[in-house]
Design goal:
This protein has 371 residues and is of the alpha+beta class. The chain has two domains: 12-142 and 164-198, Hypothetical protein, domain 2 (Endonuclease III, domain 1), CATH 1.10.340.30; 238-366, Nucleoside Triphosphate Pyrophosphohydrolase (Alpha-Beta Complex), CATH 3.90.79. It has 14 helices and nine strands. The protein has helices spanning 11-25, 38-48, 53-66, 70-74, 78-85, 92-107, 116-120, 127-138, 147-157, 166-179, 185-199, 217-221, 276-286, 342-350; strands at residues 238-247, 253-257, 268-269, 272-273, 291-292, 299-302, 307-316, 327-330, 365-366. The strands form two sheets. Strands 1, 4, 5, 6, 7 and 9 form a six-stranded mixed beta sheet that branches. α2 (38-48) packs across α3 (53-66), α2 (38-48) packs antiparallel against α8 and α9 (147-157) packs across α11 (185-199). The longest helix has 16 residues, at 92-107. It is elongated, with a radius of gyration of 24 Å. The two termini are 35 Å apart. Belongs to the Nth/MutY family. Residues 47-198 form the HhH-GPD domain. It comes from Halomonas shengliensis.
Amino acid sequence: MSDTPTPVLPPEAFQRRLLDWFDTHGRHDLPWQRDRTPYRVWVSEIMLQQTQVTTVIPYFERFMARFPDVAALAGAEQDEVLHLWTGLGYYARGRNLHKAARVIVDEHGGELPEAVEALAALPGIGRSTAGAIVAQSRGRRAVILDGNVKRSLTRLHAEPGWPGRPAVERRLWALAEHYTPHERLADYTQAMMDLGATLCRRGTPECGRCPFADVCLAHARGEERRFPESKPRKALPTRATQMLLLRDAEGRVLLEQRPSSGLWGGLWSLPQFDDAPALEAWLDAHAPGSELAPAWAPFTHVFSHFRLEITPRPARIARLDSIGESRRWYDPARPDALGLAAPVKRLLASLAPFTLEAPPSPRESVSEESP
């Protein structure tokens, strides 16, 4: 199969249809479309990766209120950045945003680079995100291929194969390049994202309102839901962990900071153990004489690559020989501004002022996070 698919329309005709539709039906008043600086567009694009607009808006507005520019973000502690990210998922995005801000301040004079290649070299910014930043904030021609655009182009051309395969992705980049105009870049880029997000949706495409319904090959075949083809799925493995809810005489809970990479990297969590003997051995070594209560009902947190079965293990401390540098006491009644792993945040919120009794069992926690 050729790496250069046959377009269904000349670029001018495609652009005209799309922009006419966008002028009437597109989204024109999103928070990052106001005062459209490279910084604001960058933050919005990172937050919008794998996350819907309606979810992102309140996070974006809180983030901008606290970190109005690159310098403010670069000067913050990672804990504060992750605290504002808590609940948004895919926490590596927040960590990379913070790292990139410091690189921008240290190596680029506090200004986002203008070139797509230089932007894509920053932590957490890929080719498509870099293109979106350049097109939307600077009005320069740059090509994007996010999930919404991939879905729309795949259906329009009935492109076979999973879009994550390199050969399929190359063909989609060629199509995206073919259709991208030299004018109205900010509007065109937003229009392409809007088309996929509001009409060419994953499960329920609204073909009757689509400006390309008459030329869409998937629609002509009645196979809209066949495209794009899904990634071959494997059964998700299940891992188990025991989370220690260790409380002192004041009702505070012991937290520990996760390593900077890996599961919940950089976030604060409850001490975790592979099994009950490992947890009990840690208590004997570090908090002898503690009262270990019966385990609470386990619940499941789902990541993109595995399911984590969490068993909370409440305990009341007698003494703690050493808290360690990566641990701290946390008062659920007066919570600190910490970045917390999502299931840990829910567990802490469920605690009574001081009890070892189990709260109502949490429902399965679903997250499309990558570990």
